[in-house]
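Problem 12. The chain below contains 113 residues. Write out its predicted structure in token notation.
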Amino acid sequence: MRKYLYLSIILLLFACAPEKPKAPADALTQQQMSDVLADMHLADVISSGKMGTDSANQAAVNYREVIYKKHNTNHQQFTESFNFYKEHPILMDSIYAEVITKLSNKETEYRGK
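Solution.
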């Protein structure tokens, strides 16, 4: 009798476990998102050093177009992918963990020169 109770509880737990969200077919992968986001954060830092907010905003737009081209994506695909990952915070958290690692490595590389 106890075996059936334990089996029932285990089956219930697996049945209630949340499924891993499935990204849309055209969404950027987590790796691609972390690459793009790391480059965007670097571009934001670079453009924030420019004089005047209008110049900084224009520089950021220009950098983003270069980043999209570098990663074979576009604004629409990036935005749709970002919105998907934003709705799934666990996935977004792992993406940003990778972004932080990439930016930390770049900082270490920069400071080492």
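Discussion. The CA atoms of residues 32 and 72 lie 10 Å apart. Students who got a different answer should revisit the alignment rule from Section 12.3.
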